[in-house]
Amino acid sequence: MDEKMKWSLAGLCLVPLVMVLGNSMLIPVLPALKNELGISQFEASLIITAFSIPAGIVIPVAGYLSDHYGRKKVIVPALLVYALGGVIAGLGAVILKENSYPVIMAGRVIQGVGAAGTAPIAMALASDIFTGAARSKALGVIEAFNGLGKVLSPILGSLIALIVWYAVFFAFPLLCIPFAIIVWMKVTEPSGNLNKQPVKQYLKGILKIFSKQGATLLAAFLAGSITLFILFGLLFYLSDILEEKYHIDGVYKGFVLALPLLVMATTSYVTGKKVKSKPKKMKSIAVTGLIVIAVGSGAAIISTNTYFQMSALMIIGFGSGLVLPCLNTIITGSISAEERGLVTSLYGSVRFFGVAIGPPVFGFLMKISSQIMFGAMSILAGITAAIAFFVIKVKKSG
Prior knowledge:
Blueprint: H1 3-24, H2 30-37, H3 41-69, H4 72-96, H5 101-115, H6 119-129, H7 132-161, H8 167-186, H9 199-244, H10 250-275, H11 279-299, H12 306-332, H13 337-368, H14 370-391
Helix pairs in contact: 1-6, 1-7, 1-8, 2-3, 3-4, 3-5, 3-13, 4-5, 4-8, 6-7, 6-13, 7-10, 7-12, 9-12, 9-13, 9-14, 10-12, 11-12, 11-14
């Protein structure tokens, strides 16, 4: 890998790193936010949803724009919009104090719109820059940085909250603005991949892709969405249990929440590095990862002991690290560069919807029974593994 490509990869790794902070950094702050604003647990969970659903809706538009005008021309403004949303939410909390919930939600929606043009487009750009085995490795590194963001964000969120709970919102512009400058100056975008077709013709091309490979793509989309749905739902559950049951908060809670995410990030990096351009192996590893998630979720039913359930979460983190980098390579390798932006963005959308739905669903199930919650997740992961095994057909990425 030459120096220019190394800089490009380094710049692209910053994009998912900052994107994932949008949710993960807020998870340890939610109990304090809930108490300060006097809102319910469900309303607190909507702070995550308000970010993720707008992102999921806007991502396909961002994908089309990146195919039509260029990836960097979408990523850089998106990072600036992301920063603006953080400023709005933070100022709302400062000025309106306990009445700031609507303004915070508005800021989170704006952040979600900005996030739509970040990680999915960075994934498409990485697939434009790298080919073959180098693509699998690059996407594994990017997924690892995504995981690293999840690892660092609970700790970072807990540390920033020591100043004041709403300080976390002001961290976004401090990160997004310099990252936008780095991407613009250091990432080299290949020329000749733009798709200047009219929207109607462009969409016909996308429909043609799905008519040929729709089953594989949809099964891969489902697997990615379910993986993140379970992971973020369980993190929301763990954050609440640590604070409400064991009175563990602050930085210590951040470190506890980071452990399963560290396992996921490490596994993602190793998987991306080892899997290379062997498509059959990618499918097998992704299915194995889903089975591991099912086993981890099922094991958590055995005991309500927090240490035991933390071990189960580590297993789920390991399984997630097997699934995600393989899906990235299967999806990006299935399509040409001219349509890659929109297809990877659609994948990003369903990932965001998985994250968005997780906390509210788990918040609801927590009120019924943690055993039912874990059992349902185990069955869901098992069914998804079966679908992936029977439906996904892979071809060698190029």
